[in-house]
């Protein structure tokens, strides 16, 4: 079994600490992984967590053998001095190894976009950078998962006002199509069932509380159905996430970021995993940020990174 | 102990059925209540539920004695033939009895606004009608409650686009002030703690994802704090509702209808209760609609109405 490549993330955030703790939790059970990073920040994080020192490896194929005894670290070539360069090199190395087939997939630690922008990074975020590195023309789709619930926000990092403006019928159809295809390919679901949430309260109440359901979301549902997708909606978003409703679909598409994130984080705050759909490689990440405020204190929880590593291994098996 | 007045709601909806079933569930334990309605629809609902016939009463004070043996029904004066008139008379009678002190509070069954509009009803909904009947000048505030969570939507029955336009600093401050005052008066909380949710993803991410947090919500939080309210925010709305976060406040104010309803219905779909704050009488209602699609089939769940009756009794004791 090929190992997963875990990136460094921002070295001033909790990435190194949770990578160290995740290794501590998974060293005897797997999944196997290695970190693409210079040795120093990982060695420091392991030491702070009271764990043994890392093992420098030169190729992904060396990871499995040393994993039970030491966290394998594969340093990108070159010796970047700047933190931003280190962050970007870590991602590039992990992606290259996954594309070459040496790594089963990529699990990314959180980055801090402002720091990267200052250093010349030109992408809105991780996901777009990965789309660029892997030569994708269509924008990738973000899926978030906990045990028993998968959600896909159709609009992501926009204000509510801008998101309402950015929504289009095509965008909903494209997102639904990618989601259905990837639920089959990555999650092994033969005939995925999609729920499409409404934008407005009471699903617009027949036009009285907004027209997007009639002009945009309803027609998008019809188009997806005509393409053979098993889909229902637009459903009032507040009715989609209780325990009985969750049994009725494999993923729920939500029009706004918080319509998707709210039920996910309400039900399981610590173990959300972000999965990128529409890439030629498997990629997951924890659904939290760099958490600068608690970095270095030894109190960061590795739960989400562990879940991201476990899900990446599962998706890599299904996609193989 | 004074009984509660329960309204008929739309007679073609599930109101009569759930009132009958709620009586069946509460007849030996209380809280005592009576229905303000003509006898016929209630008699029919009891019969369909396999329960004994109702008892016609002429005054609220007769309810307690017959409650263990028969559901007390107090018919409004006059004999309306039209359904819409029956619905409105039921509400007026219940409110009058609560204002006179004969009833401890009002629990309203769901109405169908379109039917009432056709019959000349001129209010956006129940809540505004109750504000009018009780002579309130300020618009009442809607609070929704389940065990362990209270939420207050600052905007209610508007499209998302219209809600974003309708939000103002004053509206947030007014809603927060009413909520804090009523949490003390009705819920007996000496020093209520309010969470104020952000509108935009990541609470606007320092202005990158929307400005309302800086221009409107943040200043509203400061004003409430200056008035002595124990308040925090604007907090990213997706982080406010997991089990640890819920322990940190007595009510969460949310900018959009579904930001408030989504966590509530996700956590407990069947037992949400709507409480009207800012009225001179106690008023609760189930948080579902008329459910015409399942009316008359005997399958409607009375859970939310039962919770509304129980909460109304509790609020009436605190407010007494």
Query: What can be said about the biggest beta sheet of chain A?
Result: 12 strands, mixed
Mean pLDDT of chain A: 95
Give the helix tally of chain A: 12
- Give the assembly state of these chains: homodimer
Largest two-chain interface: A-B, 40 and 40 residues
Beginning-to-end CA distance, first to last residue of chain A: 11 Å
The radius of gyration of chain A is 20 Å
Strand order, largest beta sheet of chain A: 3-4-2-1-5-12-11-6-7-10-8-9
Detailed description of the structure:
The structure is a homodimer of 320-residue chains. Chain A has 320 residues and is an alpha/beta fold. In chain A, 40% of the residues lie in helices and 16% in strands. Chain A has 12 helices and 12 strands. Chain A has helices at residues 15-26, 39-48, 63-66, 83-100, 113-118, 126-133, 160-166, 169-185, 212-226, 243-246, 257-267, 303-319; strands spanning 4-7, 33-36, 55-57, 72-74, 106-107, 141-146, 149-153, 193-197, 230-235, 251-254, 273-277, 283-286. In chain A, strands 3-4-2-1-5-12-11-6-7-10-8-9 form a 12-stranded mixed beta sheet, sandwiched between helices. In chain A, α9 links the parallel β8 and β9 (230-235). In chain A, α1 packs across α2 (39-48) and α8 packs parallel to α9 (212-226). The first copy, chain A, is elongated, with a radius of gyration of 20 Å. The N and C termini of chain A lie close together (11 Å). The mean pLDDT of chain A is 95. The interface between A and B is large, with 40 and 40 residues.
């Amino acid at each position: 079994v090929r190992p997963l490549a875990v990136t460094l993330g921002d070295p001033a955030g909790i990435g190194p600490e949770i990578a160290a703790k995740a290794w501590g939790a998974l060293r005897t059970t797997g999944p196997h992984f290695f970190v693409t990073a210079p040795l120093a920040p990982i060695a420091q994080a392991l030491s702070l967590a009271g764990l043994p020192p890392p093992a420098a490896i030169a190729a992904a194929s060396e990871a499995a053998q040393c994993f039970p005894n030491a966290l394998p670290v594969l340093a990108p070539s070159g010796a970047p001095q700047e933190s931003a360069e280190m962050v970007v090199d870590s991602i590039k190395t992990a992606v290259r190894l996954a594309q070459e087939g040496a790594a089963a997939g990529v699990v990314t630690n959180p980055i801090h976009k402002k720091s990267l922008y200052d250093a010349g990074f030109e992408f809105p975020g991780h996901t777009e950078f990965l789309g660029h590195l892997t030569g994708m023309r269509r924008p990738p789709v973000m899926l978030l998962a906990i045990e028993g619930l998968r959600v896909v926000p159709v609009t992501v990092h926009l204000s509510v006002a801008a998101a309402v403006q950015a929504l289009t019928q095509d965008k909903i159809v494209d997102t639904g199509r990618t989601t259905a295809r990837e639920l089959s390919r990555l999650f092994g679901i033969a005939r995925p069932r999609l729920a499409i949430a409404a934008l407005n309260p009471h699903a617009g109440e027949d036009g009285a509380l907004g027209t997007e359901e009639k002009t945009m979301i309803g027609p998008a549902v019809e188009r997806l159905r005509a393409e053979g997708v098993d889909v229902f909606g637009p459903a009032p978003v507040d009715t989609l996430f209780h325990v009985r409703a969750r049994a009725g679909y494999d993923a729920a598409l939500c029009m706004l970021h918080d319509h998707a994130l709210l039920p996910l984080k309400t039900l399981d705050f610590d173990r959300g995993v972000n999965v990128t759909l529409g890439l030629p490689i498997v990629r997951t990440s924890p659904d939290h940020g760099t958490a600068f405020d608690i970095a270095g204190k030894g109190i960061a929880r590795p739960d989400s990174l562990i879940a991201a590593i476990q899900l990446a291994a599962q998706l890599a098996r299904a996609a193989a």
